[in-house]
Amino acid sequence: MTGPAADSVLEAVGEALAAEARLDRARETIALERDDSGALIMTAELNSVAEKRLALERAAAVAGVASIVDRLRIKPATPMEDKAIREHVCRALDADDGFWNLALVETVEKEDRVFRDAAGEPAGRVAVEVDDGVVILNGAVPSLQHKRLAGVLAWWTPGSRDVVNGIEVEPAEEDGPDRIEEAVRIALDRDPFVDASEVRVGVRGATVRLTGAAADAEQRHMAECDAWYVFGVDDVINAIELTQTPS
User: Which part of the chain is the BON domain (predicted)?
Assistant: First the structure.
């Protein structure tokens, strides 16, 4: 789609991104264009999941944007090859007690390879594929919390540039703020770098508000990242206070 109408939509999206203070300099790195169907294409390598989610949310709210082709990727903490990322995610799932009764599968060149059979009566399966640093999760699990925790563990993998969580929940469950709050709490409890006992979580709609205390700025930042990693979270307000004054 080209012409004045397309140009006006791209301009409006650019203005919406510029108005979001938390995007800071990230706005300058995001390339915007529209394809022949009119879909907005967003391309960039960003510093955090927060920047990615905020950019997508602000763009989606602009009149005239009906669909978005998401090519926003995150700069990995540690560059890793796809095979290493895939194995890391599978090992993380295998080590978590929450997935003991789920089969774990590696998808390599469209072929599924069993990484680990389920223990006891199988309750579902998680398939892990990685393409150019993007972790793609598929399969079926018995709860939203399984789906969300799998996504968090994938984001925790140092080489991950994005996580596409296509896991189905069977039977389907009704989602809502309480479920998101529970998922954020689970992520914080599992994070060894965060003192979860000092952090309180509140959710309104799909916006998470974190309060409480953290020993330093790094723990405060990690708690916020954990909230952003949860599938379904649209925004995070970090009101955690520091118990130590920076020197």
Answer: 5-76, 101-171, 176-244
pLDDT per position as a tens digit, 160-215: 999 999 999 999 999 999 999 999 999 999 999 999 999 999 999 999 999 999 99
Domain 177-242, CATH number (from 3.30.70, 2.40.50, 3.30.40, 3.30.1340): 3.30.1340
If pLDDT is split at 50, 70 and 90, which confidence band does 7 have? Answer: confident
pLDDT tens digits, one per residue of 129-168: 999 999 999 999 999 999 999 999 999 999 999 999 999 9
Where in the chain are the domains?
Answer: 4-74, 82-169, 177-242
With a cut of 70, say whether residue 246 has pLDDT above it: no
CATH number of 4-74: 3.30.1340
